[in-house]
Amino acid sequence: MIRAVVTGTGSALPANRVSNAELAERVDTSDEWIVERTGIRFRHIAAEHETTSTLATDAARAAIVAAGLEPKQIDLIVLATATPDQTFPATATKVQAALGIDDCVAFDVAAVCSGFLYAVQVADSMLRAGVHRRALVIGAETFSRILDWEDRTTCVLFGDGAGAIVLEAQDDEAAERPRGILSTRLHADGRHNQLLYVDGGPSTTGTVGKLRMKGKEVFRHAVVNLAAVMGESLDLAGLTPADVDWVVPHQANARILDATARKLNLAPEKVVVTVDRHANTSAASVPLALDVAVKDGRIKRGDIVVLEAMGGGFTWGAAVVRW
After folding, report:
1. Residue 193: active-site member
2. Is the separation of the CB atoms in 254 and 276 below 8 Å?
């Protein structure tokens, strides 16, 4: 059986790091208010010359180096984003060009905060089908471009950044404990559009629009849906929460992370938390947090790692990976 194995991770953040105290100088808020409700202390905000594609390219380069590859060995790029450089073409093609790859399949996936999980399943399926050998899966966002900076309930929650992984198709027929993606599970329920959305678009208003959210309702759905989909993905892999070494969740809100862990009886120390330093970076948040935990040595060869996220739509999903 062919499995998609993670062989490299990478991330990129804008140089401009903004603290809660700095944000309070322009928004009616405070460090205490933000930390108490979200756990966020810092976020990175893209400068004018920084875009989703430039951040994605930097993260991709780091992941390729970590995998010990050259860019031209990549034959598939799947990029998850809700903030593309342009309406079209796909931001993935700009990354492809920036990396100097003459020809490979490159396209975007739009599932907001769950986008990286959707992209992982797409790439996993294409690798296991034997169509491609090495894939870049990227989550990248510049959410600061679509925030209403007069709405203190939303603008304090988000930041910009990118994360990437390299997936390589490997034959695990002889392996007792096969590495790679063991299972994925995705969902969507479009009935909840008005709870988390952007109030613009090319075919409706002709504008980019701004992010709108009903936080309490989103919180309630997130805890239930994330716990359920993590359980489903573990069942598909033939595992239980007791087998999990690390959970790398979407970094939206520290209270959601705590509540989800309690619902699955997971020890808090098994949950990778970076929301305090990055805020919510939508599709970038899972690969950003994953890269942090790989680079600091927490995630080791053979570990069972669960990735999970929920975003506007609603969309949500999880993946189980043996490192």
Report:
1. no
2. yes
Catalytic: 280? Answer: yes
Q: What is the mean pLDDT of residues 226-235?
A: 95
- Count other C-beta atoms under 10 Å from residue 242's C-beta: 8
Q: Are 182 and 322 in contact (CB under 8 A)?
A: yes
Q: What is the 3-state secondary structure (H, E, C) of the chain?
A: CEEEEEEEEEEECCCCEEEHHHHHCCCCCCHHHHHHHHCCCEEECCCCCCCHHHHHHHHHHHHHHHCCCCHHHCCEEEEECCCCCCCCCCHHHHHHHHHCCCCCEEEEECCHHHHHHHHHHHHHHHHHCCCCCEEEEEEEEEHHHHCCCCCHHHHCCECEEEEEEEEEEEECCCCCCCCEEEEEEEEECHHHHHHEEECCCCCCCCCCCCEEECHHHHHHHHHHHHHHHHHHHHHHHCCCHHHCCEEEECCCCHHHHHHHHHHCCCCHHHECCCHHHHCECHHHHHHHHHHHHHHCCCCCCCCEEEEEEEECCCEEEEEEEEC
- Among 20, 225, 253, 280, the active-site one is 280
pLDDT of 148 > 90? The answer is: yes
> Catalytic pick from 113, 132, 155, 253?
113
Q: Per the confidence metrics, is the pTM higher than 0.90? A: yes
Tell me how crowded residue 203 is: count the other CB atoms within 10 A of its CB.
5
The β-bridge partners of 163 are 11, 139
Q: Which of 44, 132, 250, 278 is catalytic?
A: 250
Instruction: Give strand pairing partners of 186.
Output: 317
pLDDT in tens, 83-113: 999 999 999 999 999 999 999 999 999 999 9
The structure tokens listed for 101 are 């790859």
